[in-house]
Specification:
662 residues, alpha+beta, Transferase(Phosphotransferase), domain 1, Lipocalin, 12 helices, 29 strands, 27% strand, globular
Length: 662
C-alpha cells in the first residue's frame, strides 16, 4: 500500500494505492495510537470506515492475537444498536478492519453548549433503551465495552449507536495482565465505574454504571461526578468511588432509573434488561413519534444529505494528495514554530472539507520562576493576612487513559462530524481516532499522576512536585501541577509546547492558577519531562530537578488520621483540626483556633496521600478571612501521621505538633 493510503511512509501497497481490500479510500478521518482511519466506499457503493493498524503493532504477536480475538468477538455483536464489522484481514502485513459508517454526531456534541444542550425526558428514555439493548448485544458476544462515554455514542434519527470497542475486553480471551501496563487505568475518568478505579476485575455491570453516568449527562449536560476541573482527575475518581452522584434537575421516574445504574456495588446494580423493562415502549421507528427534538432531526437530515456529496476520487490521484481534495478532520500537529496552514473556503452545498487550522505551540512566555522562600510564621495564632483567592476552576478536560496492547476493532466508526461536519450549532470540526477525539500529542507513557522530591542544583530542597498529565494537543493544557515548599503551595497549568521526535520527552509552558499564601508564586516557565522508565519521569526546570514516580489508584488518607483532633495554644486557647477524606488538591484538614479574643479558621489542601512512601502531605493553611477575626498567623506545610493514638504533624525543620482525639 502506498504510504498515503495507510499513513505509514514506505509501506508496500496491498493492491492499489487508493484501495485496501475491496474498499476505495476517500480521505483520512483521523489518526490514533493504533493506526489511521479512512472514510471509504465498497465496490457496491456503501460508505464504510476502514482502520489500518500500525506496522509496529502488527509485528507484535500478542497484539495480533488480541486483534484476531476481538474481531471475532465483534462480529458476533448485532448491528441494530452498534456499528457492524463488515470485513477484516487480521493476517495481512497491515491488518485492517472495515465497519459500518454511521452518519450522526456524537452525544457529546449534541449535548454540549455548542449543540442542542440537555435532552428532554423522552429522548433520555429512548437513549436508555438503545444503550441497554446495545449492552445486551455486546455482553452477549462475550465483550465488556469498558469505555462507554458520550463521544462513543452516536445519535441517529432512528436511535443511538454505540461505537469504539478499542479497549473492549473479550471475556474469554487473554488474561487481564496482558492488557494493561502497570499503573494504567482503562477508561475515561468522568464515565468510569468504581471497580475500574480500584483496578478490580471488570464484569458487564461496569458498563451499566458507565451507562448511568452517560444518561445523567444527557439529561443535565454535566457529568454526575464532575469533569476534572480544579480538583483534577483524582477528585473525579474519588467522587465515583465514595460519593453520591449529582442528579439535581432529573425528575422521577428517570432519576430512580439512573440511580439504579449508579449503585457502587456491582452485584446490586441494575441490569440492562431491568432498564429496558422500565423504559418500554420506546419511540425509535419511523411509525412512532420522533425520539429527538425537531430542530435536531432537521440538522441530522441536512447533514446526511451533505454526506452523499462526498465524491469517490479518481484512481490516479485518489490518495496522492488527500489534503487537496478532502482534508483530514485533524491534521498532524504542526511542529513547533511552523506556521499553521490557512483554512480553505467551503463551497455551499458540498462537503469539501476545510483545511483545519492546527494549534501552533505558543512561544515561551515572559514568566520566570519565582517561588517563595520566606521564613514561616508561627502556627495559626493570628495573621491579619487576607484570605487567598480560590483559583478559578479550570476547564474540564477529557482524559482518555489509554490501554497498552489492545486492538481497535469497532472503534473504526466515527460520527459524521469526523468527516468534516461542524458540531451542532457551529464551532470547529471535530472527531478523530477511535474514542471520539483527535490523536493526542502526549505519548501514552506520560499520561498519569507523578510525584517526587525536588532537588535544587543537585541538593535536597525540601520541596515536593506533583504532576497530573493527560492527553491533548500542542498548545492545550495537558498537565496540572502542585509545587509544595516549606511555606507555600503553588498550583499551575501546563500547556504542551514541544516534544522529542521519538516521544521520549515533553516540554511544558506553565501558568500559576493558585497560590498559598496569596501572591507567593509565579510560573517557572519551561518545564521538561523525560521518560526514564514506564514508572519514572525526570523533571527539570530552572535549576530544579526531580525523579517523579508514577502514583496508581485513588489516594486515600489512612483511617487512623480521620476525625477531629485538638491541641493547646501558647495563648491558652485551643486549636481543633478536623481531617476528612478528600481528593488531592482539596482541603482535607480544617483548623479552628480560638483564644485571646481571636477566632481563626483555615483549610489545608491535601497534596499527596500515596506513592512510594505513602506520606500524607498538607499545604500551608489558607485562612478563611470571612470566618476569622483577629491577627491570624499561618504556619508551614506539614506531614501527618498517627502514632500511639495521637495525631502528629511534622514540619520540614523536624519540629512537630501533637494532637489528641476529641
Amino acid at each position: 500500500m502506498a504510504g498515503h493510503a495507510a499513513g505509514f511512509p514506505g509501506e508496500a501497497a496491498p493492491e492499489h494505492d487508493d484501495r485496501i481490500g475491496p474498499y476505495r479510500l476517500l480521505h483520512v478521518l483521523g489518526t490514533g495510537g493504533m493506526g489511521r482511519v479512512h472514510l471509504a466506499r465498497s465496490e457496491g457503493g456503501r460508505t464504510v470506515a476502514v482502520k489500518l493498524i500500525k506496522p509496529e503493532l502488527a509485528a507484535e504477536p500478542e497484539f495480533r492475537e488480541r486483534f484476531r480475538l476481538e474481531v471475532e468477538a465483534a462480529r458476533r455483536v448485532g448491528d441494530r444498536w452498534t456499528a457492524p464489522v463488515l470485513d477484516a484481514d487480521t493476517e495481512a502485513d497491515t491488518p485492517w478492519v472495515a465497519t459500518g459508517y454511521i452518519a450522526g454526531p456524537s452525544l457529546e456534541h449534541v449535548v454540549s453548549p455548542r449543540g442542542h444542550g440537555p435532552l428532554p425526558e423522552l429522548s433520555v428514555r429512548t437513549l436508555a433503551y438503545g444503550l441497554s439493548s446495545a449492552l445486551l448485544d455486546i455482553h452477549g458476544a462475550g465483550l465488556v465495552h469498558r469505555d462507554l462515554k458520550p463521544s462513543n455514542v452516536l445519535v441517529t434519527i432512528d436511535g443511538p449507536r454505540v461505537i469504539d470497542f478499542g479497549i473492549a475486553r473479550a471475556l474469554d480471551s487473554l488474561p487481564e495482565s496482558t492488557l494493561t501496563s502497570a499503573g494504567m487505568v482503562v477508561g475515561s475518568p468522568s464515565f468510569m465505574s468504581p471497580e475500574q478505579i480500584r483496578g478490580e476485575q471488570l464484569t458487564p455491570a461496569s458498563d451499566v454504571f458507565c451507562m448511568g453516568a452517560l444518561l445523567a449527562y444527557a439529561a443535565t449536560g454535566r457529568a454526575p461526578f464532575g469533569g476534572g476541573g480544579s480538583g483534577g482527575v483524582h477528585a473525579v475518581m474519588f467522587k465515583i468511588a465514595e460519593e453520591a452522584p449529582d442528579l439535581a434537575g432529573i425528575e422521577e421516574p428517570l432519576r430512580s432509573l439512573i440511580e439504579g445504574c449508579l449503585v457502587k456495588d456491582p452485584t446490586a446494580r441494575a441490569r440492562p434488561e431491568d432498564v429496558i423493562g422500565q423504559v418500554q415502549p420506546v419511540a425509535t421507528g419511523t411509525s412512532t413519534p420522533p425520539w429527538l427534538p425537531a430542530q435536531l432531526i432537521a440538522e441530522l437530515g441536512r447533514r446526511a444529505v451533505q454526506l452523499l456529496d462526498t465524491d469517490t476520487p479518481p484512481r490516479a490521484t485518489a490518495m496522492a494528495s488527500p489534503a487537496r481534495t478532502h482534508a483530514p478532520t485533524q491534521a498532524t500537529p504542526t511542529p513547533p514554530h511552523t506556521p499553521a496552514p490557512a483554512p480553505a473556503p467551503v463551497e455551499a452545498g458540498t462537503l469539501k472539507l476545510p483545511q483545519p487550522t492546527v494549534a501552533r505551540p505558543p512561544e515561551p512566555g515572559p514568566e520566570q520562576e519565582s517561588e517563595s522562600e520566606s521564613v514561616p510564621k508561627p502556627e495559626l495564632e493570628g495573621t491579619g493576612r487576607p484570605a487567598p483567592e480560590r483559583p478559578k476552576k479550570r476547564a474540564a478536560r477529557k482524559l482518555v487513559l489509554a490501554v497498552a496492547g489492545v486492538a481497535v476493532v469497532a472503534g473504526a466508526v466515527f460520527a459524521a462530524s469526523a468527516a468534516g461536519w461542524p458540531p451542532l450549532g457551529g464551532g470547529k470540526p471535530s472527531g478523530g481516532p477511535a474514542g471520539g477525539g483527535t490523536a493526542s500529542d502526549v505519548p501514552r507513557g506520560f499520561v498519569g499522576t507523578w510525584a517526587g522530591e525536588v532537588l535544587r542544583d543537585g541538593q535536597p530542597s525540601g520541596q515536593f512536585r506533583r504532576f497530573e498529565i493527560s492527553e491533548g494537543q500542542y498548545g492545550e493544557v495537558v498537565a496540572n501541577s502542585i509545587s509544595l515548599g516549606r511555606n507555600y503551595e503553588c498550583k499551575s497549568d501546563g500547556k504542551l509546547a514541544g516534544r522529542a521526535s521519538g516521544g521520549s520527552s515533553l516540554r511544558l509552558d506553565t501558568k500559576v492558577v493558585g497560590s498559598v499564601p496569596e501572591g507567593s508564586c509565579s510560573a517557572l516557565g519551561s518545564h521538561t519531562l523525560i521518560a526514564e522508565s514506564k514508572d519514572a519521569l525526570r523533571w527539570e526546570a530552572a535549576g530544579r530537578s526531580a525523579v517523579l514516580h508514577r502514583i496508581t489508584g485513588p489516594e486515600r488518607l489512612p483511617q487512623a488520621l480521620l476525625g477531629t483532633w485538638q491541641r493547646q495554644l501558647a495563648n491558652g486557647g485551643t486549636q481543633r483540626m478536623t481531617v476528612t477524606q478528600e481528593a488531592v488538591g482539596s482541603p482535607a484538614a480544617r483548623m479552628i483556633s480560638e483564644g485571646g479574643g481571636e477566632h481563626c479558621e483555615a483549610g489545608m489542601d491535601l497534596v499527596s496521600a500515596g506513592g512510594r512512601d505513602a506520606t500524607v502531605r498538607l499545604a500551608p493553611p489558607a485562612v478563611d478571612r470571612a470566618a476569622s477575626s483577629g491577627a491570624c498567623v499561618t504556619g508551614a506545610s506539614s506531614q501527618l501521621r498517627a502514632e500511639n493514638g495521637q495525631l502528629i504533624r511534622e514540619f520540614t525543620d523536624g519540629s512537630t505538633l501533637t494532637y489528641t482525639r476529641v
